[in-house]
Write a structure and sequence with these properties.
There is one protein chain. By secondary structure, the chain is α/β, with parallel strands linked by helices. The protein has one domain (42-353): 4-Layer Sandwich (Purple Acid Phosphatase, chain A, domain 2). Helices cover 24% and strands 15% of the residues. The strands form two sheets. It has a six-stranded mixed beta sheet with strand order 4-5-6-7-9-8, with no helix packed on it. Strands 3-2-1-10-11 form a five-stranded mixed beta sheet. The longest helix has 15 residues, at 30-44. The protein is globular. Bound molecules: fe (ii) ion (2 copies). One fe (ii) ion is lined by residues 75, 77, 113, 142, 275, 277, 294. This is Metallophosphoesterase. Residues 68-278 form the Calcineurin-like phosphoesterase domain.
Length: 381
């Protein structure tokens, strides 16, 4: 048996507990129906998706107090300037773009993976480059920021990894979905650098299913949402998607069902997430999830396809470092949420017809990996 295979088995044995069955309380919501109607309506009358490049999502929602914009940047994966400046240049460009928004954004959310290998100079470089953005900035961590020193430097620079604030009738919540990776490194006597190397690999089969919210954070969410009017908007920022998209790459949190349970009473919930480096859209229960671009590089779509509600992005040109990457403007109107993907050098962000990409076919259903795992309590190292 190879070393890698042995590691995988050890980790799987440590992480998987039998006897837990799902509560797949999924249903077609009014929002989902509306969204599907838009897609099928446009397709059946032979229109193009000309308006999709600007707006991937239009939703009936209840009442932000007034319309406003905010911006998202994430997954900059900065190396020190002495190693390369390619990613630095793209952060400079994104920061300038955000700062020149008119009307201005009310705030910038940075969605994690500011650094590539979690080094202090990488994290500090991110702070320096984002000084260009003068509006309020809030941060959540990515796994690349965390696993060299278990979030010590990140905490010094950015504070608490989870937080909440209210803005113009919307409750915003920032979640930490990266810090609770089950500790398999101590027993293996891994160095911080080895641990970080494991976490920096897209294929999570070495580091295991590390992404999760954790019981303590679920309890905290319950507490801060007690008393919030169930019809008022909630926007949750997380590095990983809060549903099961593709666990082998940790494109999920393994306790997403518990997250759904906490949010079940609320009718207007949006999850905006990074980590996937690609355009994504999904709805489960009362929550819609929107995937954001990276500034660094695009990841491919999962081999098994994308959620049915996703209008896939174009296939990018690997020879163009500005293709398939960028940042987002998000608008909260009184009655809708709009996502504008700012993909540098592209007028058309989305594929224009089903014939353009096999990814336009519906997702393949398979047994959910979460069904095979035990309850996730989350453990702070
Ligand atoms: Fe990333
Ligand atoms: Fe990530």
């Amino acid at each position: 048996m190879s070393d890698l295979e042995r590691q995988r088995r050890e980790i799987a044995a440590a992480l998987q507990r039998p006897g837990v069955s799902p509560d797949p309380n999924l249903r077609l919501t009014r929002r989902m129906f509306f969204h599907k109607s838009c897609l099928f309506g446009a397709a059946t009358v032979g229109q193009t998706f000309a308006w999709w490049p600007l707006i991937n999502t239009i939703d009936v929602a209840y009442a932000a107090e007034e319309s406003f914009k905010f911006a998202w940047i994430s997954d900059t994966h900065l190396y020190p300037r002495s190693v390369n400046t390619r990613f630095v240049e793209k952060v400079v460009r994104a920061a300038k773009d955000v700062q020149s928004m008119s009307p201005p954004a009310d705030f910038l959310i940075f969605g994690g993976d500011i650094a590539q290998l979690g080094k202090p100079e990488e994290l500090e470089l991110g702070v320096e480059l984002l000084k260009e953005v003068k509006i309020k900035k809030v941060f959540i961590p990515g796994e690349h920021d965390w696993y060299l020193d278990m979030g010590k430097k990140w905490g010094q620079l950015f504070g608490q990894p989870n937080w909440t604030f209210d803005h113009k009738g919307v409750r915003f919540i920032g979640l930490d979905t990266v810090s609770r990776g089950p500790d398999y490194w101590t027993a293996r006597k891994m160095s911080p650098e080895e641990r970080m190397d494991h976490m920096a690999v897209l294929d999570g089969s070495v580091a295991g299913p590390w992404a999760g919210v954790g019981r303590d954070q679920l309890d905290w969410m319950e507490k801060i949402l007690a008393g919030w009017d169930p019809s008022r908007p909630i926007v949750i920022f997380s590095h990983n998607p809060l549903y099961e998209y593709y666990p082998p790459w940790n494109f999920w949190v393994r306790d997403w069902r518990e997250v759904q349970a906490v949010l079940k009473p609320f009718s207007n919930v949006t999850n905006i997430h990074g980590h996937v480096h690609q355009v994504l859209y999904n709805e489960i229960g009362n929550m819609r999830s929107i995937g954001m671009l990276a500034t660094s590089w695009p990841w491919p779509y999962a081999p098994e396809g994308v959620p049915k509600l996703t209008k896939p992005m174009i296939r990018v040109d690997p020879g163009d470092i500005y293709d398939g990457v960028g940042w987002e403007k998000l608008t909260m109107n009184r009655d809708k949420i709009e996502t504008e993907y700012v993909m540098w050098g592209r007028k058309e962000v989305f594929v224009q017809s089903a014939e353009d990409s096999s990814l336009s076919t519906p997702e393949v259903l398979r047994p959910r990996i979460a069904d095979q795992l035990g309850p996730y309590e989350g453990s702070k190292p």
